[in-house]
Amino acid sequence: MISILSLPLPELCKKLQDGSLPPDHVFYAYVGKALQIATETNCITEYLQESETQLRKVKLTGKLGLLYGVPVSIKDSINCQGHDSTLGFIKNLNKPAAEDSVVVQVLRRQGAIPFVKTNVPQSLISYDCKNLIFGQTFNPLLYTRSPGGSSGGEGALIGGVVAAVGPMAKDVDSLALCMRALLCEDMFNLDSTVPPLPFNEEVFSSTQPLRIGYYETDFFTMPSPAMRRAVRETKQLLEDAGHTLVPFELTNVDYVIFNFCVRGIFADGGASFLKTFKGELEKSSMGLFLWLAKSPHWLKTLLSWIAKPFVPRFSHIIRSMRANTVDEVWSLHHEIEEFCHQFTAQWKKLNLDVMLCPMLGPALGIGYPGKLSVAVSYTMLYNALDFPAGVVPVTMVTDEDEEELKSYKGYFQDWWDRTLAKAFHGSVGLPVAVQCVALPWQEELCLRFMKEVETLILKKNRIV
């Protein structure tokens, strides 16, 4: 069983296709391990009983599809026929989906076997993983830490606001294989909004040197010492391998967070947000936003004015939660489009292929993500831009990082910065990643860059 579970996805697929591994051996190896990890981390919400029926069908129909016989886990928020998609809300219990989502349909047609659903934070708008239905999911590397979110259950299982769907795996080749399987005729036929473009093998397998932009900080969330070191060390490895690294000057991230992200989510003053949470009990991670959403306009204005000299970020958030007129919403959309054009123009002026940047890490202690919503700036930027981004682990927190953390102040030196310093504390040995970014519709280039980073890190670790 251990040997089956240790196989990278491309190798597992090859063995399933050539018959050297029977699908049922693979399936029950994954089920057994999933049960063990679920017991330890509380990452699984439901076992999909029909997966056993599908296993028998897959064996009968033969080796069809790129993912023939591969067991896959599905995030709670993605519809599977006959099962709830709760998003962590009690109101969504006992409302089974009428049909599979397009991504699940495509996975099944490619021979994959969805067998479990995994936990999410209530509403998905959190990088923790907790709700009143299924409880808290824990990080498999250290149970006092959060597995992150919104795909926390998936993250725990693998370690062992329109939502975007992206595969998660232990290595980049597995992600590329998932993308090959998803970008197929079935996907384009089932969802006409997806551009009918197959996976670009030439881009992914290219060995041409890359021109890579990079930055160590967004000047909004001060990176932990390990985050900064992760970018620096990865930059050096990439330069040594013959790639060109170009400093990228990042500006106005605070404006993006407050005006595009917070104001965008709460454009109606929080009315839709309140409606979504109405009648729900588990609100700990969203408590502050819910209270502010309920507050009248005059109180938000007053609180924003009072808070400005002492906690300017909090003041900006309150001001961003006011109700907008229709004209103001249209103006906001236009402003976001303009920002995207400006960012892309800066990228193209430097003739960049991809971008290397920090990823929030290491994993925060249980309970901290709910107190630190502002710390999502490194990933939120590319949510706002709608750029493809991937995360690759490159190092682990050292004793030196921990010592340097003692002088961590943050850029605003407010309550959030002080709390983030505490959340980073005691992380020696935990993994830290970098973020790899490409321009829109260039997922293959993003994956190619991730593969390059992964290969260089593995080579470095073998030498060490």
Please describe what this structure looks like.
With 464 residues, this protein is an alpha/beta fold. The chain has three domains: 2-190, Amidase signature (AS) enzymes, CATH 3.90.1300.10; 203-248 and 350-463, no CATH class; 255-326, no CATH class. Helices cover 47% and strands 10% of the residues. The protein contains 20 helices and ten strands. The chain has a five-stranded mixed β-sheet. Strand 6, helix 10 and strand 7 form a beta-alpha-beta unit. Helix 7 runs antiparallel to helix 20 and helix 14 (297-307) runs antiparallel to helix 15. The longest helix has 24 residues, at 326-349.
Secondary structure blueprint with pairings:
Blueprint: H1 2-5, H2 9-18, H3 23-41, E1 44-47, H4 50-61, E2 71-75, H5 102-109, E3 113-118, E4 130-131, E5 135-136, H6 152-158, H7 172-182, H8 185-190, H9 201-205, E6 211-214, H10 225-240, E7 244-247, H11 253-265, H12 271-277, H13 287-294, H14 297-307, H15 312-320, H16 326-349, E8 354-358, H17 377-385, E9 389-396, H18 399-404, H19 415-424, E10 431-437, H20 443-463
Parallel strand pairs: 2-3, 6-7, 6-8
Antiparallel strand pairs: 1-3, 4-5, 8-10, 9-10
Helix pairs in contact: 7-20, 11-15, 11-17, 14-15
